[in-house]
Design goal:
By secondary structure, the chain is of the alpha/beta class. The protein has eleven helices and twelve strands. The chain has three domains: about 35 residues; about 130 residues, Response regulator (Rossmann fold); about 130 residues, Response regulator (Rossmann fold, 3-Layer(aba) Sandwich), CATH 3.40.50. Helices cover about 45% and strands about 15% of the residues. It binds alpha-D-ribofuranose (RIB). The site of alpha-D-ribofuranose (RIB) has 12 residues, from strand 9.
């Protein structure tokens, strides 16, 4: 099944420390396959690796996952990587050790070597959610990030804004790259120069300091397109702390539509987080039930929610 020599398999069983970890995993996966040919035995454990559970957006998708997994009587093992690749690797090992049936994975950034091994050798079913890793032949549930930010930028342009700052999230994440592409496309199409791109790691504290610093250096934008709501809210706090009025002086639009955004009257791009979570767990259950389930990418639509954080540019 594995193409690994009998001598190595034997050594992996008799003296496992002498065999490479990922080789042992492949052997164990094959043994599990042999042991439960009809895959009757399952642990019932679903692993979820999130990059930052302090960001309201991720628990919202968890609600979508739970709305399905609770009726399957699954045990959810939530791992928070805090955006750290080593922490992701540690979580992966833990989930493999407890024989999780499958994993829902939101990449923090770079791809851990162990994750590539798991995908390349189909050691355990994985569904990527929200952000795409730099891997091929995967299951992915995401949204139309490029079009979502394109529409957000178009909205600011129709209000007359021409000096628009893009406040980006964690560089290297697929969602930030796709949103920046949509922002750039909208401005270029309108013949408007892209004069401002800042990044703030998707966090409101970082966005606060980035905007405060920008203001100290004469930040001269009439509108800000933020790649998520947490940063938009941090930027609003920084602007207001400098006496700048929203939207009279500066218009701002976010992305996600977390609960705090409605309270803050923030215009934003709403991501279908419940549907994202539901689609991810259903795709994972299909892959667990049949290892030959075709891999697929699902792109769900986002929509603009107009509130009162944007206004027509005053002449
Ligand atoms: O708020 C966190 C952001 O990172 C969200 O927009 C989500 O899409 C993720 O990529």
């Amino acid at each position: 099944m594995t193409g690994i020599s009998i001598a190595t398999v034997s050594r992996a069983l008799s003296d496992p420390q002498k065999v490479k970890y990922t080789t042992r995993l492949r052997i164990e996966a094959a043994m599990r396959e042999l042991q439960n040919q009809s895959r009757q035995e399952k642990s019932g454990i679903i692993g979820i690796i999130f990059p930052d559970i302090s960001n309201q957006f991720f628990p919202l998708m968890l609600a979508g996952i739970d709305s399905i997994s609770s009726s399957y009587d699954s045990t959810i093992m939530l791992c928070n990587s805090n955006g750290d690749v080593q922490s992701e690797e540690k979580s992966l090992r833990k989930l493999l050790d407890i024989k999780a049936d499958g994993i829902i994975y939101i990449p923090a950034g770079d791809t851990p070597a162990l994750l590539k091994e798991i995908i390349d050798n189909s050691i355990i079913p994985v569904v990527f959610l929200d952000r795409a890793p730099g891997l091929k032949s995967i299951n992915l549930i995401t949204t139309d990030n490029r079009n979502g930010m394109y529409q957000a930028a178009r909205y600011l342009l129709t209000l007359g804004h021409r000096k628009i700052l893009y406040l980006g999230g964690k560089e290297g994440t697929s969602t930030d790259e796709e949103r920046l592409a949509g922002f750039s496309e909208a401005l270029q199409e309108a013949g408007v120069g892209i004069t401002g791109i800042l990044h703030a790691d998707f966090s409101n504290t970082k966005a606060f300091s980035v905007i405060k610093e920008g203001l100290a250096n004469g930040l001269g934008y009439t509108a800000i397109a933020a790649a998520n709501d947490a940063m938009a809210l941090g930027a609003i706090k920084a602007l207001r702390s400098s006496g700048i009025r929203i939207p009279e002086d500066v218009s701002i639009i976010g992305y996600d539509d977390i609960p705090s955004s409605a309270l803050a009257e923030l215009t934003t791009v709403r991501q279908p987080f419940m549907e994202m979570g539901k689609s991810a767990i259903m795709q994972l259950y299909a892959a667990i039930a049949d290892a030959h389930t075709p891999k697929k990418t699902t792109v769900l639509p986002s929509s603009i929610v107009i509130r009162s954080s944007c206004a027509v540019l005053k002449e």
